[in-house]
Amino acid sequence: MRQRRTRTALPGGTVNHGGRMNRLQRGKQIATIRKRQITSAAYDVIAEKGYYNFTMMDIAKRAGVSSGLIHHYFRDKENMLVTLLREMQQNIRSSLEKAIAPVDDPHKKLEIFMDQAFDLTIKEREYVYIIFDFMTQIKFNERMQRILTKLYHSYRETFAEIIREGKAKGVFKQVDEQYMATVFIAILLGVEQQYLTDNTSFVYRDYTGKIKKQIFDLVLAGR
Questions:
Q1: All structural domains of the chain
Q2: For residue range 25-38, what is the model confidence (pLDDT) as tens digits?
Q3: Which pTM was predicted?
Q4: Burial 191-213 (b: 16+ CB within 10 A, else e)
């Protein structure tokens, strides 16, 4: 049922429009929806055409909006791409946190973390392609470099925090968690890059399963 707009009379005959805040809120909601609509279209277009081969008109057509509306919400192409990269990072981070949050066992948490990281190549392949596309810009674009720096820092810190928790509970050995996190991310990126370049060179699931086992061999207490 649609809510009725309320108005509160104030002294002196002035009226505080409860609807004014509602209009502002609706405006912000619409802006958020439009931005997500545009960045979602940008995600699809970049996945299809690559970082260097798309235009703002391509995105406008995919989003079903005018190019003028895109410029209304985003100052320029770079601003839109930075927004897209941030949203991608936040979505992946949110998905990981949601999967780990209800789990108490550090061993299980680490398994979930590695599974989610490796599964991106299979379930969210376009995401990985786009990240690699953006990585080509880190030499020239400081903003993208900062965002990607935060992305990998976030991955490393989550991995390291799981190891710290496991060490405290006696589940993991007294290993250097930052080193182990860095090693895992390096392996992850290397395996992704090789598999996306030539997916006939090895069986992805077999290799990632072996990598997980080796990581556990290195960190689990009693091994």
A1: 8-74 (1.10.10.60), 76-223 (1.10.357.10)
A2: 887 888 888 888 88
A3: 0.76
A4: bbeebeeeeeeeebeebbeebbe
